[in-house]
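Hi C.,

You asked whether I'd gotten around to modeling the 246-residue construct. I have! Everything is below, sequence then structure, no commentary in between.
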Amino acid sequence: MPWQAPGIKPNRTWVYDPSPDTLRTRWERLIKAPASDKAILFKESDARKIDSLVQPITGFVIHHGTIKDEAGPCPAPVRVGYRSFDRQWVIPDNRVHHRPSPDLWRVAGDAQVFASEQHAHPIESGPGLVFTAHVPDMDHTDGRGGRVLPLYRDRAAGSPNLAPGLTPLLSHRLGLSVTAPDMLAYVAGVTAHGGYTARFAQELRTPGVRVPLTADPELWTRAVHLGKRIIWLHTYGAASWCSDMA
């Protein structure tokens, strides 16, 4: 999966919450606060201040002006992958995000699945990868940073994020029809459990997940079936192409 991007990094935790109503309350408190308090409530950073002028991004609301002068209601919160298996809501306004990772929002869609990887530190236990149907936070994997690998390079799911020629090669090698979702399901079946990290503990001292590829059609099919079940569970059933796992 050659294309990767960092997860979103708001640099302020108040834009996240399990409850959309709480986010609306925080927003209202912020925009109605006296000017002298607004910067503190906002939690200004080098990249975002209450008077920062920034452009909207795909997947977020169209906004006008600055937070300092904002008087409108809270944008409708959207789901994100906050931590592994922890879906929360976020305020989708570029003015309150330090680094929103616009490329990930650009490709988010009904068929999209994001693999989340810890690539900067050795993996010592737990799964090698976790998956989400929502744009994930930078710390989604294990709270120590990481990177995100989308299954598709576009929202329409027409361009898989796989090495060129990989699926035809595997199809020929295995004597099966191999699709991009099959490939991701195989990856999940191999990596998304503690057995993977235990088996490859020595190799994983060098950060980054590597995936052994089988040439056995029966083993491939078993791994794909297992991986679809894993992705269906990780995404809370949101991955449409795993619907047969329900």
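If it helps when you're writing up: The mean pLDDT is 94.

Thanks,
B.
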